[in-house]
Design goal:
Shape of chain A: elongated
Oligomer: homodimer
Helix content of chain A: 40-55%
Order of helices and strands of chain A: HHHEEHHH
Largest interface: A-B, 37 and 37 residues
Largest sheet of chain A: 2 strands, antiparallel
Low-confidence stretches of chain A: none
Number of strands of chain A: 2
Mean pLDDT of chain A: 94
Chain lengths: ~140, ~140
DNA sequence: AATTACCCTATTGATTTAATAGAGTAAACA
DNA sequence: TGTTTACTCTATTAAATCAATAGGGTAATT
């Protein structure tokens, strides 16, 4: 299951990408437009800022805005920040590899073999989609 | 993340599929060979029996065995029983569809659009792999 | 009849998730 | 310069899910 955090994060990014200009948008406006708990959204936007996707401006007329063009924001990067590893098991993860403690040999592991294919399929989707591809004009 | 239930279930199925004949294998033997808590494995095998993947035999010489050939067991079916819906959000699920209560319109939803592609990619993997494909001789 | 091994229910501890509360801080504008 | 606005941060909590454990019950085989 996709976490609410990821879901809300994607919706917020899409909303920002659909703005005409790159003027800051207030948290409250994003939250109400996308039906998201404002406080929860705050923490999500904060993590997107800390990872370089968003910029923020304080004070009157402040808010959040995209730091790059939507078509330069890859879904692989967004998903890794919001949802974590793309792989379903650590032993097939590119960025978060870990050996399974219960598995004697990855080369003969049925789970490993299947999850490797699943990972590749998912990666392929995320690599070929940018934030711009999610916007429906 | 893949749940332990699914992981263990896949390992147990693979172990059964790798047997020379279709004689019943005891829970204890599967558990020790695959490093799985025996009691936990019991409940998993039980659910696989109730969903028609396994047969069981009681008494001495009893155990679990595959009801079909490994190449007739599709990963889509196995995954749906063990892990649940393949889709990451209910609004793109084929077998477990549900409308998102926070989303006014699926047709313009960025999350929906992306997760539809992800679902198709995953389905494609699971549909083209059977239990036989997981076995490394 | 005794043994073996499956079958079932209930409970628990740990972890994660989603949300809430409340105080703090920095920037803009009059 | 002071006030408003809106982002920033920490802590807490309620709920849900996951993984495992315990223990007794039942059915089939020898």
């Amino acid at each position: 299951m996709l976490s609410k955090k990821t879901k809300y994060g994607l919706k917020a990014l899409s909303f920002l990408a659909s703005q005409k200009d790159k003027k800051p948008v207030q948290i409250a406006e994003i939250a109400s437009h996308e039906n998201i708990s404002q406080k929860f959204l705050e923490s999500i936007l904060l993590s997107l800022r800390k990872t370089g996707f968003l910029g923020s401006k304080k004070g009157k007329g402040g808010g959040y805005y995209l730091l790059k063009n939507a078509d330069e924001i890859l879904m692989t990067d967004v998903m890794r920040v919001l949802e974590g590893p793309i792989a379903m098991v650590p032993c097939v993860s590119l960025n978060f590899y870990e050996k399974c403690d219960d598995c004697p040999d990855e080369n003969t592991c049925a789970v490993n073999k299947l999850m490797l294919k699943v990972r590749d399929a998912n990666l392929s989707v995320y690599r070929h989609n940018t934030l711009a591809d999610l916007i429906i004009t």
